[in-house]
Write a structure and sequence with these properties.
single chain, two-stranded antiparallel sheet, 8 helices, 6 strands
């Protein structure tokens, strides 16, 4: 770890290739992981056989480097009120979050350590909520494309869809026009 540069060097990983991870944002402020690392840095004290000591490792057990997460992970997950969570679940979560945040795939893959597009895509699990959001975005884009120059009044669109979307509601010619445009995409 290079605290001054704000990076962690991951010297080993699942794909057997080392990589770095940033601990600071573009303005030099600590990101979430950086804040966690700094908090752990202050917690390096432990009780050695000959008295108090300070570990050179950020994550340690009695001053010794944590080599295998399988031994410490269940206890850490329980302490974080996340019992039963697997460490590997967070790699999948990271992929989903990076993709949803609009991070370019090549950059996301360099962070998560994926070598191939196919494996990266397997980690990017699509949910029903993702599909609902995609259809809503398509509807909004289609509606915007059908409007004359000057923009879209999204509130008006939602009201129009609600008014014409219920059976038995009376509709004006204007509402019928909205109905034809909106129902195709909703």
């Amino acid at each position: 770890m290079d605290r001054e540069a704000g990076t962690v060097f991951l010297w080993t990983s699942k794909n057997k290739e080392p990589r770095t991870f940033p601990l600071r944002d573009a303005e030099g402020r600590l990101n979430e992981v950086g804040e966690l690392i700094e908090k752990r840095w202050t917690m390096r004290a432990y009780e050695a056989a000959n008295g108090p000591a300070l570990s050179r490792f950020v994550f340690h057990v009695a001053g010794h480097r944590v080599w295998n997460l399988h031994h410490v992970w269940p206890k850490a997950a329980a302490a974080a009120n996340l019992p039963g969570r697997l460490f590997h679940d967070y790699r999948r979560t990271a992929v989903r979050d990076l993709v949803r945040a609009g991070v370019p795939q090549a950059v996301a893959m360099s962070i998560t350590g994926h070598k191939t597009d196919s494996v990266f895509r397997r980690y990017n699990i699509t949910s029903d909520a993702d599909k609902v959001e995609a259809v809503a975005r398509l509807a909004l884009a289609s509606y915007r494309a059908s409007r004359p120059a000057g923009g879209v009044n999204v509130v008006e669109m939602a009201r129009g869809w609600t008014q014409v979307g219920h059976k038995g509601s009376e509709t004006s010619p204007e509402a019928s026009e909205k109905s034809r445009n909106v129902k195709l995409f909703w």
